[in-house]
């Protein structure tokens, strides 16, 4: 009976692990910005471009982006991206506004 060494199994487990999900305190209310406020935040470098956020969201929840909004959650900026999957289901991805790290997928 041959057993695989521990290292390759551990390496495979690391490869299978999804990208880390950053916890954003979900108790904080989310308030979304207007188009002008969003443009200002992007121009001032406080958040990434919406197109970049869209790519991050599609990577996390593949599908067509149907809506993207920049919002404030407490002191943090977050992008709330709605994607429509091929099977017709909708996913809502919340990303950190500056880094694009996935906070939640619903």
- Profile the largest sheet: 5 strands, antiparallel
Structural class designation: alpha+beta
Taken from the alpha-carbon principal axes, the silhouette is globular
Mean pLDDT: 82
Rounded Rg: 17 Å
> Which strands sit side by side, in order, in the main sheet?
1-2-3-4-5
Uncertain regions spanning at least 5 consecutive residues: 4-23
Order of helices and strands: HEHHEEEE
Percent in helix: 25-40%
Straight-line distance between termini: 44 Å
Number of strands: 5
Taken as a percent bin, the fraction of beta residues is 25-35%
The count of helical stretches stands at 3
Give structural notes.
Helix content is 29%, strand content 31%. The chain has helices at residues 6-16, 35-43, 50-60, and strands at residues 30-32, 64-73, 76-84, 90-96, 102-105. By secondary structure, the protein is α+β, with helices and mostly antiparallel strands. A hairpin with a 5-residue loop joins strand 3 and strand 4. It has 3 helices and 5 strands. The termini are far apart. Strands 1-2-3-4-5 form a 5-stranded antiparallel beta sheet, covered by helices on one side.
Summarize the structure.
With 106 residues, the chain is of the alpha+beta class. The chain has three helices and five strands; from the N terminus they run αβααββββ.
Topology (elements, then pairings):
Blueprint: H1 6-16, E1 30-32, H2 35-43, H3 50-60, E2 64-73, E3 76-84, E4 90-96, E5 102-105
Antiparallel strand pairs: 1-2, 2-3, 3-4, 4-5
